[in-house]
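subagent[fold] <- orchestrator: predict structure for attached chain, return tokens only, no commentary.
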Amino acid sequence: MSGRNGSASDADCRISEDCRVPDVELMELGPLLEEAGRQAAGKGMMSEGASVLPDDDDDDDEEVEGVLTLPLQAHHAMEKMEEFVHKVWKGSWRVIPFHVLPEWLKDNDYLLHGHRPPMPSFRACFGSIFRIHTETGNIWTHLLGLILFICLGTYTILRPNMYFMAPLQEKVVFGMFFLGAVLCLSFSWLFHTVYCHSEKVSRTFSKLDYSGIALLIMGSFVPWLYYSFYCSPQPRLIYLTIVCVLGIAAIVVAQWERFSTPAHRPTRAGVFMGLGLSGIVPTVHFTIEEGFVKATTVGQMGWFYLMGAMYITGAGLYAARIPERYFPGKCDIWFHSHQIFHVLVVAAAFIHFYGVTNLQEFRYGLEGGCTDDTLL
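subagent[fold] -> orchestrator:
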């Protein structure tokens, strides 16, 4: 009895070793390949049943089985990979849990379920826009925001010249803001759409995504500094130069390979928060020059304070991964930190546009007029 149990255990060990290779290799392909596991298990049971039967040529059969098993397993794995790619291409895929993802797709370990599998097809990636998964909210928040800012930008740039004191110059100023917003939102929704394609594509679009954030911050400074220091061209030029230098530095840092890894999430948030907080100096300068009451009312500083608070709050939630940190598995699809960050970014950019247009009207009024020798 003991001898029989021992030979059965040995057979189990051999079977588990034989089946482990394809399971591990195909694990990254997700639940689509569960059928492969079941087939492998069925073969294992057949092998187990056969091993219990007495055979005089056990040693020879084991050698032949060891020679034949590996090529068959490799062939079986290749067939399943081809089947998986074909199903993905046709859009027939299912979401998978976090622990099944390959390492290059693992970003937020508090989102436990609902992830897309690796999909080596751009057609399948763009088709996933209309499916429900962890990136659905991230894609649509910035895709809809992109449409909003394209419409706002078109409306602003095409306004008649009578609404501007220096039409060409001011349209360029507003154009810089809308260009930064459109590029940021475009890079973001594209990244969240295709980053499951492959590791190389993920890294490339993550660099574009982070560069877009820096471009949005830089573009946001341009109209605000232009109208805040409308009558002070020298400080305006100095602040614009500083912001551009810091923004370019942030873009250069974003090209660093390790910058996009989960371990550097606080670093990413810190870089962009630092770039945004560089506006404190011109804000204090403007407040002192205009007076606190005037700066926060007709100077529209209240809107800019709100915008800054929203940017900082969003970046802080993103870095700390709140609320999913406290509710693992409960915010997998909706209301996780990255989605909240996206919503706050779009809202803050719109508030910025609203504040700048009001500041523009203030500068055109009698109270904010400038003498001829101070205007550019």
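orchestrator: received. Logging for downstream: Residues 58-89 form the longest helix (32 residues). DSSP finds 13 helices and no strands in the chain.
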